[in-house]
Amino acid sequence: MYRSKQNTTDSISSPQQIFELYLFVNPIGYKCYRTEQEVLKFMSSLDGPKVHFRFITFHNFNTVTQYMKRLNLPEKDLTLRNQIYSSIYDASLAYKAALMQGKKRGRNFLLHLQKSLADGKTIYSNELLAEVAAKANLDVDMFFEDKESPFVKSSYEADQHIAQEMNIKTNPSLVIFDNLNYQYGLLLEDNITAEVLHEVIKDCSVACEQKSATMKKTNITTIGKNYLRITH
Length: 232
Known about the structure:
Number of strands: 6
Pfam families: Thioredoxin_5
InterPro entries: Thioredoxin-like_sf
Radius of gyration: 19 Å
Protein name: Thioredoxin-like protein
Organism: Trichococcus patagoniensis
CATH topology: Glutaredoxin
Strand order of the largest sheet: 2-1-3-4-6-5
Number of domains: 1
């Protein structure tokens, strides 16, 4: 499971509030790179409830279209579209392989890779992966070996299943769970900044204390049974 079930055992003392953040990104997207930096900025300036976070690669037809639009690439070029899709898939496997050598190294690998591809001129290749892996202080040989492993591919497929369960449609998207209000997740799309995250976490904390589902500073609409979409 991608999140813990609520502990249904009654406790005399109030449980600690813990937030879980899941950021869904395009592993070769520069906009996602900037959003990841905002999440890391938020984490470094956090002074309050406990927060866990995770970057998850996700892609679909819209991911490729968004990427091509940003780089002003011909969207009707099916050969190029398929090439980009394959690169995103391969980069997702590469990120999963990098994570096997540590979460921090894996995140650094992802950030270095996205930054390297930001100009739209650098070609995605095994040579680039080797260079980025070295920058992230990975064992390069082990990295390539893990990238081809069945475990990495099944882990990637599990992430895509998580994205489907959370109704993720675009990159970047961020889902927030609160262990004290486990029935709902909050889904943020597009405008994801450190400032917005501080505001949302604060509002979630206040709402929990007041036992209210209303966020005073945020416009929220329901998605299905279990998610709320936040727009600004």
